[in-house]
């Protein structure tokens, strides 16, 4: 992003030093929860919360910042002590494990891991610390009696912004830029394509992923995001949706240069993106990570955390579209109609392209 900040935390030893030195203090309840039984022990009066960010950390204006917003709300409301660490580009699973292990061994409970890249690490470290509660965002594979999985119906929210793109496009040509081609980001693509085609069956949809696993730099490369979007605008697109984390800032720059439109993701990016490019954002797919993090911490403080999956979909208010700036006011009634059809089951959105 234009203001993106990447951590200088380069290794597990550095993470440990940071952890020992920096243990400083600084929605909606509607959701469907499944999983194991509630915690049998009440939470401490003042919980010590460890939060491990994905690449970019605070300041990415998107995914991580949404998690931070939920943490900040819970911290203010419940008087929590917090410690925040973040992933560095190219680090190993062993380094992620050590970050979580250090948090757990120095009294942080619960620990929240932001992003599916922590899946294997959470599963392993949670088993080592059965008395510590763990939560992971965007992953249902890391399971255990002390692990809560906070997942979202990204395909449903993406359907709505796909419909918005098709309704706003004057050229019948739109684009999707994904950060890394993994099943999670393919959910965004699948929903976007389905929504656009629901409006205009013959619409042209360009798709580009910035990197392939195990290369996850596509989530933190604004220059690559800009190049990908420029190619789409040059090829006739007039609206591009990005699900690319910190790379999304480059997509907004390309839209600005082309005099075109863009769609944000995760947060309401018309509010969070650099002011120089924010006016190109017609809507954002809201993925309410802040609500999920806040809910989890509220439940922890109340002694009612449950293991297993909590899914935040349209019906639960976990995903939606933004209206900041009024650029979709003229089509809002149509988008709301699609939204209601998804909620009542009239439309089923596939999670795969």
Write a short abstract of this structure:
This protein has 353 residues and is an alpha/beta fold.
CATH architecture of the largest domain: 3-Layer(aba) Sandwich
* Mean pLDDT over the residues: 88
Helix content: 25-40%
Quickly name the level 1 CATH class of the largest domain: Alpha Beta
Q: Provide the CATH topology of the largest domain.
A: Rossmann fold
Number of distinct beta strands:
13
Give the uncertain stretches in residue-range form: 1-44
**How many individual helices?**
11
Q: What is the CATH H-level superfamily of the largest domain?
A: Response regulator
Radius of gyration: 20 Å
- Record the strand order, biggest sheet: 1-12-6-5-4-2-3
Number of domains: 2
Inertia-based shape: globular
In percent, how much strand structure appears in the residues? 15-25%
Main β-sheet, in a few words? Answer: 7 strands, mixed
Signal peptide: 1-23
Organism: Microtetraspora malaysiensis
Family: Belongs to the BMP lipoprotein family.
Membrane topology: Lipid-anchor
Structural account:
This protein has 353 residues and is of the alpha/beta class. The chain has 2 domains: 12-152 and 289-312, Response regulator (Rossmann fold); 154-287 and 319-343, Response regulator (Rossmann fold). Helix content is 38%, strand content 20%. The strands form 2 sheets. Strands 1-12-6-5-4-2-3 form a 7-stranded mixed β-sheet, sandwiched between helices. A 6-stranded mixed β-sheet has the order 8-7-9-10-11-13, sandwiched between helices. α2 (63-78) links the parallel β2 (48-53) and β3 (81-86). It is globular and about 55 Å long. The protein starts with 11 loop residues before the first helix and ends in a 10-residue tail after the last helix.
């Amino acid at each position: 992003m234009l203001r993106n900040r990447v951590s200088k935390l380069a290794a597990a030893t550095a993470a440990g030093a940071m952890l020992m030195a920096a243990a400083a203090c600084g929605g909606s309840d509607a959701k469907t929860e499944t999983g194991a039984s509630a915690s049998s022990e009440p939470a401490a009066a003042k919980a010590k919360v460890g939060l491990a960010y994905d690449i970019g950390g605070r300041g990415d204006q998107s995914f991580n910042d949404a998690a931070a917003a939920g943490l900040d709300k819970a911290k203010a409301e419940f008087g929590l002590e917090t410690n925040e660490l973040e992933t560095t580009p190219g680090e190993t699973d062993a380094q992620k494990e050590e970050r979580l292990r250090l948090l757990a061994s120095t009294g942080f409970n619960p620990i929240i891991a932001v992003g599916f890249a922590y899946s294997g690490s959470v599963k392993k470290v949670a088993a080592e610390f059965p008395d510590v509660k763990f939560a992971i965002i965007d992953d249902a594979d890391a399971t255990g009696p002390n692990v809560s999985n906070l997942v979202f119906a990204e395909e449903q929210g993406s359907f709505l912004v796909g419909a918005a793109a098709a309704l706003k496009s004057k050229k019948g040509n739109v684009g999707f830029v994904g950060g890394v081609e993994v099943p999670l980001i393919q959910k965004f693509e699948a929903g976007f394509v389905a929504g656009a085609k629901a409006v205009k069956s013959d619409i042209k949809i360009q798709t580009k992923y910035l990197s392939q696993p195990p290369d996850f730099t596509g989530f933190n490369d604004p220059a690559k995001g800009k190049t990908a979007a420029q190619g789409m605008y040059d090829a006739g697109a007039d609206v591009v949706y990005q699900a690319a984390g910190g790379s999304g800032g480059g997509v907004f720059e390309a839209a600005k240069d082309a005099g075109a439109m863009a769609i944000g993701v995760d947060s309401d990016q018309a509010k969070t993106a650099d002011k120089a490019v924010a006016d190109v954002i017609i809507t954002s797919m809201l993925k309410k990570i802040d609500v999920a993090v806040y809910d989890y911490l509220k439940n922890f403080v109340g002694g009612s955390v449950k293991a297993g999956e909590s899914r935040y979909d349209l019906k639960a208010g976990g995903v939606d579209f933004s209206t900041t700036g009024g650029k979709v006011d003229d089509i809002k009634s149509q988008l709301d109609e699609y939204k209601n059809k998804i909620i009542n089951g009239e439309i089923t959105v596939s999670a795969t392209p």
